Amino acid sequence: MMKTEFRILKEGKDNVKDNEIGLNLVDAGIVSFATLSNGEKVENPRFFKIDQNVLAKAQRKLEKQTKDNPERQKIKKVVSRIHERISNKRYNFCLQEARRIVDKFGLIGIED
């Protein structure tokens, strides 16, 4: 049996009673980023697919270098930076969507 836990988050609405705020539940998914209890789906942006060609080109360049070549270290930093950029885009998207949902609904339940 799966354990389901809901956390209720309220921000900036301490003086308002719970029943006056629209409760919204968020379910994270694979196909869509999130599905809200009102039926709204937040599409999952594919940041990796956008930068996939640039990353592949940099990795091919890295593969051609010998291990003791100083140029390899430079290209390795480029590959690392591309991965970091993808990670930052994903993180930023999560923060922006969380802020949008909190601004739209006062009370949010998240399934753990």
Write up what this structure looks like:
This protein is of the alpha+beta class and 112 residues long. It has one domain (6-111). Helices cover 47% and strands 21% of the residues. It is built from 2 helices and 5 strands. It has helices spanning 47-64, 70-104, and strands spanning 6-10, 23-28, 32-36, 41-43, 107-111. A 5-stranded mixed sheet has the order 1-5-2-3-4, covered by helices on one side. Helix 1 (47-64) runs antiparallel to helix 2 (70-104). The radius of gyration is 21 Å and the shape is elongated.
Portion of residues in beta strands equals 15-25%
Coarse morphology: elongated
Strand order of the largest sheet: 1-5-2-3-4
Instruction: Compute the separation of the termini in Å.
Output: 14 Å
Number of strands: 5
Quaternary status of these chains?
A: single chain
Instruction: Give the rounded overall mean pLDDT.
Output: 78
Radius of gyration: 21 Å
Poorly predicted runs: 1-6, 15-21
Helix proportion: 40-55%
Number of helices: 2
Structural class: alpha+beta
**What is the element string, with H for helices and E for strands?**
EEEEHHE
What about the largest sheet? 5 strands, mixed
Give the count of structural domains: 1
